[in-house]
């Protein structure tokens, strides 16, 4: 298989759950573009540039992973870059309804694009960027929820 897949999210911050989905997607696809989505409705902890920098640092030794950002529709990025598969992670926390709705809209906008859902592994099912930020903002311990490089960024100061 020589397909490239797209794994998009705000990744603010990138968590162990994200990393698990990314690594497992590399078992299915030769290359994955990790796309930092710029969402005007979210208030990020890190700037887009900081998230790009930390992800490029985290995956600098893996040529199968490309890191990029986009502030438009996911389907437009996919069309512009000739990517026809998007990866989405599912947790048993109500993700399915939202993800199904988003996949259906994407399919209507770009019927040639398929969405592949990967279930989050057990040790990561409760981790979300929002919860990591909340715990971090209250001086809680988040080291076990994010990759080491991301943790270093969270504790800079």
From TrEMBL:
EC numbers: 2.7.7.3
Task of the protein: Reversibly transfers an adenylyl group from ATP to 4'-phosphopantetheine, yielding dephospho-CoA (dPCoA) and pyrophosphate.
Location in or out of the cell: Cytoplasm
Residues annotated for ATP binding in this entry: 10-11, 18, 89-91, 99, 124-130
Keyword Ribosomal protein: no
Gene transcribed to yield this protein: coaD
Domain Cytidyltransferase-like: 6-134
Example of a GO biological process term: coenzyme A biosynthetic process
Quaternary state and interactors: Homohexamer.
Cofactor(s) required for function per UniProt: Mg(2+)
UniProt protein name: Phosphopantetheine adenylyltransferase
Family: Belongs to the bacterial CoaD family.
Record InterPro entries: Cyt_trans-like, PPAT, Rossmann-like_a/b/a_fold
The organism's place on the tree of life at top rank: Bacteria
Organism: Halobacteriovorax marinus
Membrane spanning residue stretches: none
Catalysis performed (reactions): (R)-4'-phosphopantetheine + ATP + H(+) = 3'-dephospho-CoA + diphosphate
Pathway(s) per entry: Cofactor biosynthesis; coenzyme A biosynthesis; CoA from (R)-pantothenate: step 4/5
Record GO terms (molecular function): ATP binding; pantetheine-phosphate adenylyltransferase activity
Keywords of this entry: ATP-binding, Coenzyme A biosynthesis, Cytoplasm, Magnesium, Nucleotide-binding, Nucleotidyltransferase, Transferase
CDD domains found in the cross-reference section: PPAT
């Amino acid at each position: 298989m020589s397909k490239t897949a797209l794994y998009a999210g705000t990744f603010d911050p990138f968590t162990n759950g994200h990393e698990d989905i990314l690594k497992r997607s590399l078992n299915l696809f030769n290359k994955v573009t990790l796309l930092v989505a710029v969402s005007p409705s979210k208030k990020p902890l890190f700037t887009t540039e900081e998230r790009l920098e930390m992800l490029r640092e985290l995956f600098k030794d893996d040529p199968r992973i490309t890191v990029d950002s986009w502030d438009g529709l996911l389907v437009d990025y996919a069309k512009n870059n000739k990517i026809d598969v998007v990866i989405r992670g599912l947790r048993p926390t109500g993700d399915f309804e939202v993800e199904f709705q988003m996949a259906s809209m994407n399919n209507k906008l770009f019927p040639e694009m398929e969405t592949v859902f990967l279930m989050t592994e057990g040790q990561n099912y409760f981790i979300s960027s929002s919860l990591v930020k909340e715990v971090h903002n209250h001086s809680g311990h988040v080291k076990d929820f994010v990759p080491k490089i991301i943790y270093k960024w969270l504790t800079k100061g």
